Structures are given as structure tokens and as C-alpha cells.
Amino acid sequence: MKIAFAASECVPFVKTGGLADVVGSLPKALAALGHEVCVFLPLYQSIAVDEHDLHALDTLRGLAVRIGDQAVTFDVWAGPLPDSDVAVFLIDCPAYFHRPYVYSNDADEAERFILFQHGVLHTMQHLAWAPDVLHGHDWQAGLLPVFLRHPYAWDRLFTETATLYTIHNIGYQGRFHEAAVYTAGLSYEHYHPGGPFEFHDSFCFMKTGVVYADAVSTVSPTYAREIQTPEGGAGLDGVLRTRSADLHGILNGIDPTIWHPVHDALLPTNYDARTLDLKAENKKALLAEVGLPFDERTPVVGIIARFTGQKGFELLQPILADVLQQRRVQFVVLGSGEDHLERFFQWAADAFPERVAVYLGYNDRLSHLIEAGADLFLMPSAYEPCGLNQMYSLTYGTLPLVRRTGGLADTVRDYHAHRDAGNGFSFDDFTPYALYTTLNRALEVFEDLAAWRALQLRGMAEDFSWDVSAQKYAALYAQLAARKRTG
Fold first, then answer.
1. 420-454: per-residue pLDDT in tens?
2. One domain, residues 474 and 438
3. What is the sign, positive or negative, of the torsion defined by CA atoms of 442, 448, 452, 455?
4. Could you say which of 103, 133, 403, 436 would form a disulfide bridge with 319 (CB–CB 3.0 to 4.6 Å)?
5. Domain assignment of residue 260, yes or no
6. pTM (predicted TM-score)
7. Please, which residues have CB within 8 angstroms of residue 426's CB and are 6 or more apart in sequence?
């Protein structure tokens, strides 16, 4: 099959979150299965074209598209997705994308990604290439399904192109003033209260994608169920329930060439399930790195996160001092975000200098060292569409402690609930008490060397590679393409 990805991020070119990891990894796994895959991205100012072996296509310069009342031109650059046969095409329009940021609150934010989506389809037209499945990601690609049904319906090139629309985080919906309907080249016939374009007096790109795509997916089975509820649907639950038969939850994967302790180039000591005792060398190195004293029998809790309300660290604030005073435990924290959470973690490091270390910002090498050197990894998320760090942790023999939501519920099985099948610790209620009791349970199990080792080995035996997810996507693509061919 021929598959095209359209997204606003892709590792290694541009990344602000997990979307980039998906778009940088899933196409490679699909190509390895024998599919012809390409990726479309905006060419942001931050993308180093020389570093990534990107070049302008001479035959695709000065392509014109109408954005509202104005004609806008763009060029197309291309290059390889590293270590693969996947081609990457980048839509280059300096007026929209040569800015010092990926996303903005600028007045023309809708125009930026309207141009990108028209650019994707215009490029395919000029290449005379149509995919069997056009796979759009998040609100920045939410208009592609309706574009194929309306402004581009005349072009028989796309007659047999099916669309899949993936929601990575339903909290970011791409809602704009109704004037953006005209800017996009669409008809106001479909913009009315409760109509396919309209959501709370706005033109909603995500709702449009959900309504018009041949199928919708999201990044874990549990999240697919949660977003169909009033509690988890961010207002779109009713629309999503109308698509329930075509809504699929497929768990994200991880890239084992980057995230696996046996060949992680950023670790001082590599190890696997057969040499798990060597994990302690990474714990020693981690604590030396952050300036905490090492004791192999003192459990280390790792945190790597954006400090936002989604991540649930407000639950830790009322209980951390009690935990540190009552239990032999250390915390190593890496992240940044909301000021009050940064101040909280910095207070903890100042108040308990031999028990808590905090690095404010991001450090890739330290993130790998935390995954390998910690004993527990904390993710008390209010919601988590998929999550990757809990899968990294299981792969590294670091037991995740999570709130049972989204992809965390699909990957972490609580030891006390499942015993012989457990691989970590989890809780349901979004309360400090639930986190407190679960953390205490985990610290008690840490004292049982045999039980802890069994949990580690069980997690390390699981396969979270993209190969598993790619096979599920390939099956869905085949289903959609067959349905499109037969009308």
C-alpha cells in the first residue's frame, strides 16, 4: 500500500511532544513491512536543512494556493527520514513557517495550517501521486478529510484515497473564528450550530476531521473509550460516539534502537534481563551525576515530565514531605513547566538536599540515565492519551507507578491486583491519598528482593516496539483502502 502521513511534527526534524515520536517512528516500521510511505511536514525556521540532508525540489517551486482572498506560493523540500526508505516532503512558506516557534497564538495561526494542508494535496497533485491512505494527525491536519471530499473532489487522482484521522490529545482542538471557513476555501453550508464544522461558535479543525475521515484513531485503547465520555471528551464526546464503530485505539510504540538498556549509547553501563544486576551501576552513576548519596537499598523514584496540570504532580505536593520524613527514599526530577510546580520541586530539593535532586529544563542524556538508574518511575497523570515513559521504564526494569488512565491503564498492571501478571503499581482516584498509599505499597514491595526482581523481569519481557503497532495500523489501512475501492 501507499501511505502518506501529514503532521506538524516529526523526529528528528521538529519536536515539541509525543506526536513527533510517532510520526518519526511509525512510518519506518510500516516501510519495513513493505509499504510505500512518505511524510509531509511544514518547513519551520528551526529545521536545519543541511544537517538533515534536505534539498529544494526544482520542479516544485512557486506552487500557488488560494488562502481566503490571497494567492500564496510555497516551495517543496525533500529528504529521507533517517535510517529508512521513507521520503519526507516539507512545505516551505517563509511567511507562515519561518518563525522562532512551531505553534503560536498569532492572528494567522489558522492560515498557517490551512496552507500546510493545501500544500500537502497540491504537492501530491504535482507529483501525480496519490496514497491509498492519507493519515492526518491532530488538529493541524484535521481539514484533509473534508478537503478531499469537497475542494479536491474533482481530481480523480484521489478517488480511491481513504483517510484516517488520529487524535493524539483531545485537549488541543484547533478552534478558530468562523472566518477561517472561507480562508480554507470551504462552504458555510456546513457551518451552523451543531454542524460538522462548528463547535461552540468556532470553526473546529479537530471536529471536522472526526466527522469527515473514513476512520478515526487514537493512541491507546483506553483513551479511545475515555474520549467518548463527558469526563474525557473535552466536549467532543458526543461527536466521537457517533463514530464509535470507526474509532480505533492503537497503542503507540517505542523505538528500541534508542530506548533499550542493552545498547543505549547514553548509559555508562549497558544491561539486559540476563545481566540485570548491572542496572545498579547506572543507579550509582545517576546519583553521582545529581549529587545524591548512593545506597543500593534506598529506592530512587524518577520523574521526567512537563510540569502541567495534566501530569498530576499536584497530588504529590501535599504528601512529599511526609513520604521523605517517614520513608527511606530518594527522588530525581527532570522537567520544566508551570512556575508553581517548578518552585515546589526546587523547595523539595532545598529542604531535603540528600533526598531530592531537581534539574529544571531538559537533558536527553539525563533522561536516559534516570530511566536506567531509578527503581520507580512516577506518572500520576490526570489523563494520558498514551504515554511513553512508562514503556521506557518497563523496558529498563524500572517499575512504573501510574494513575490508571489512557495508555497507562493499557500498559501497567498493578502488582497487588494481578500478582503473577503485575508489572508495576497503579491507582484510580485522582487524590493525594491514593498516590500516597500506592507509593507506600511500592516501597514495601521494594524490600522484597525476589518479588521486585520478578516484576522487573516481567516488564522487560514485554514488546512495546513499533513493529506491533505498525501491524495493527497496516491491517486498519488495508480495511479502509478496500472499503474505499468498493465504494
1. 999 999 999 999 999 999 999 999 999 999 999 99
2. no
3. negative
4. 436
5. no
6. 0.94
7. 401, 402, 403, 404, 408, 409, 412, 413, 414, 417, 438
